Amino acid sequence: MESAEAEPSDSRPEEDGAAPCSGLPPPEHPAATMEDCLAKKMEITVSEAEKRTGRNAMNMQETYTAYLIETRAVESQSEGQCAPVDSLWRRYSEFELLRNYLSVTYPHIVVPPLPEKRADFVWHKLSADNMDPDFVERRRIGLENFLLRVASHPVLCQDKIFYSFLTQEGGWKEMVNETGFQLKADSRLKALNATFRVKNPDKRFTELKHYSDELQSVISHLLRVRARVADRLYGVYKVHGNYGRVFSEWSAIEKEMGDGLQSAGHHMDVYAASIDDILEEEEHYADQLKEYLFYAEALRAVCRKHELMQYDLEMAAQDLTSKKQQCEELATGTVRTFSLKGMTSKLFGQETPEQREAKLKVLEEQIQEGEEQLKSKNLEGRDFVKSAWADIERFKEQKNHDLKEALISYAVMQISMCKKGIQVWTNAKECFSKM
Amino acid sequence: MSGGAAGAPKPLPSSGPKSLREMPHPLATSSSEEMGPALTPSPDLLLPRSIADKDLSLPNGTPVDTSSPASSSSLLNRLQLDDDLDAETRDLFVTVDDPKKHVCTMETYITYRVTTKTTRAEFDLPEYCVRRRYQDFDWLRNKLEESQPTHLIPPLPEKFVVKGVVDRFSEEFVETRRKALDKFLKRITDHPVLSFNEHFNVFLTAKDLNAYKKQGMALLSKMGESVKYVTGGYKLRSRPLEFAAIGEYLDTFSLKLGTIDRIAQRIIKEQLEYLVELREYGPVYSTWGALEVELSEPLEGVSACIGNCCTALEELSEDMTEDFLPVLREYILYSESMKNVLKKRDQVQAEYEAKLEAVALKKEERPKVPTDVEKCQDRVECFNADLKADMERWQNNKRQDFRQLLMGMADKNIQYYEKCLTAWESIIPLLQDKPETK
């Protein structure tokens, strides 16, 4: 089976400006090296979050949070000068628009995910309210992380729309919409159809899709159980606070034992209070896991794109084959396969030679076109596979590195928690020994 | 050696006195040669024991000599002995160990080995080894309460266990009970009066305790009535300040202990629920590890680590359940029985005051205080003295016991965190390991 290419797009790759909306990476812009990445040239932070009220598209009042993006050029700092900070405000929906644009424009790239839209995997102490300050704070960090990820990506960092997102306050939305990227987005139905019907996808992508499904499932499970674990641990620590109170009351009726009991009770209070900070730190670990949970979706998107392209190719090849067959039948007059046309022509009389000739010509033209299309689709498909797989390898390394770091930091958190526990109980033991 | 039950019990371990070399000494090296005559119980000390033992007020009204000199000197002696009580001067050692299950046609029960080593003259032999079951301990406690009503008798672990909820024959339950029974006997052993009690002696030494019990019952039926030291029906106007203070203290004390018991139970419950979640949490890392290549080992490592923490937590909860809670409950029971002794004391004082008042009202008689009232007065003074001495001893022991208990609780928690710390620290190098360096 010849591999097929994506359908030809109308826009041609431009020399500069907006990236093309095809499956190909912009050929004029080779992937940037790490040193050239935007992240190295520019300091990017999402430094503040602010509650705003405004009117939405349906002219209804709404409350939303706006985030302050600050950027500063890095180069001039080496001379001892501090470059001026540029800043602008963006809301979450604009981040979403940016990401959608990137996903459609670079379908072969594993596009970094945004932090969750709604608070998920909460345990009782965490709020599920989007306006909750803790949630907003964690989202702020997540958005900053998103921008840094894009800025350090060799391909994505060069995107002009991304650059404008960081630097151009007004008119950015219009600029994005003008790229017409929404038209190029594959419909979900089309993608689903392709997934079911594709016959010969690249095995690696099939495996990768399988992997991303499993990854998503296992991280979801992990996050859910972790939230329950956090909840229970909270309970254990807090109940110890009751010791503080009762030891205090008991010490009141004791003579020699009183002081020891009283001070031990104080340590129990310290113990009970310590869990708040511990669990807050753990939320950062959960956020790191969440990022990769959402990354799994991005991985799957790339696989889906491949399946779609492959399916297109297969369909085009199939179409070409059938046209060639028709051609042959018309030319030789033999009917190799049963067709309704064949039957009707038998029933209602054959066509005239002129009619046949005309049909043949059309078919031959179509076959010509079809072969060209098939060639280019093939090429596109192979390029897609190549560049996608390159980014997937890059992603795998990033993932392994990041998750290892996350596990290490988690272990460090646990060690710290154990040490605090030992400290508190050692102090309490000393108080008891003085009873 | 009596097994106590009808039918053929399983062969019990040998029970005769063993040679010194064979029997492990409960405390430091045997110091029988170090014990000088000064430390053997003085003759005076024998008196209070016999006084306390005898029924001071028989239903038929037979008076018994409870003259004060004996009481006060006995008090002095008791205090003296208290100060001297440490390992080298002890002359009586009792241990409870070696629980064994007996399956008989009628019932199944556990017996414990009670080992005694002593140089006291009240004992015919220097060593004894008998087997006793809970019933026997219960009998002993009742006898002590009857015969030493002015003293605080240590508590026994709870008698009844809800069948089906707790396995009476599980190792943990039997061990917890054994420890409590051992504590019970040791407390009696440490008591300068109770340790000389005749029933205690029999308990430690008799081959056939049941025969002795029956004897006691027979005597009882001859007497016709319970010989409990209870004078009925008198109402006390006011408790003397010091005993009121003790009563209030005990009330608050048992209240606080009850609260601590509930908190400890709640903590154990929360810990077990935490454990349930942890048990699901660890394996998810393993599942994930199976998906990955480079991350496989680190994830497995984390999974194993969490597994180790689960084990450590399980041990902590078990320890708290087996070692911490029973001692708390013991002290709650102790407080209850002590409050009862206080009430008995009130009764004795009330009887005295009532009789005194009755005499005062009878103006026609010569103002001589009848011996009856005198005896009541002695009884009150004796009771007060005994109780005060016991309270002091109890306060001291309580302080030691709780110091040990709470330090033990802190220790267990420290050990738990140390186990977890070791587990997490050991996987850091595994997590940091680069595949190329392997």
Automatic annotation (TrEMBL), chain A:
PROSITE patterns cross-referenced by the UniProt entry: PX
Alphabetically ordered keywords of this record: Protein transport, Transport
Q: Which GO terms describe its molecular function?
A: epidermal growth factor receptor binding; insulin receptor binding; leptin receptor binding; phosphatidylinositol-3-phosphate binding; transferrin receptor binding
Query: Where is each PX domain found?
Result: 45-172
**Can you name a GO cellular component term?**
presynaptic endosome
Asked whether the keyword Protein transport is assigned, the reply is yes
For biological process, the GO terms are: endocytic recycling; positive regulation of autophagosome assembly; positive regulation of histamine secretion by mast cell; protein transport
Q: Where is this region: Disordered?
A: 1-32
Whether Protein transport counts among this entry's keywords is: yes
Show the CDD domains listed in the entry: BAR_SNX4, PX_SNX4
Q: Which family does it belong to?
A: Belongs to the sorting nexin family.
The entry's protein name is Sorting nexin 4
The major lineage groups are:
Eukaryota, Metazoa, Chordata, Craniata, Vertebrata
Automatic annotation (TrEMBL), chain B:
What processes in GO biological process is this protein linked to?
autophagy of mitochondrion; endocytic recycling; piecemeal microautophagy of the nucleus; positive regulation of autophagosome assembly; protein transport; reticulophagy
Low complexity composition bias: residue spans:
7-18
Q: Which SUPFAM superfamilies match?
A: BAR/IMD domain-like, PX domain
**Origin superkingdom:** Eukaryota
Instruction: Show the segment(s) annotated as Disordered.
Output: 1-75
Give the record's keywords alphabetically: Protein transport, Transport
Keyword Coiled coil belongs to the record: no
What InterPro entries does this protein map onto? Answer: AH/BAR_dom_sf (IPR027267), BAR_dom (IPR004148), PX_dom (IPR001683), PX_dom_sf (IPR036871), SNX30_BAR (IPR028649)
Of the GO CC terms on this record, one is: early endosome
Query: Which GO MF terms are attached to this record?
Result: phosphatidylinositol binding
Provide the protein name: Sorting nexin-30
Origin species, per record, is: Strigops habroptila (Kakapo)
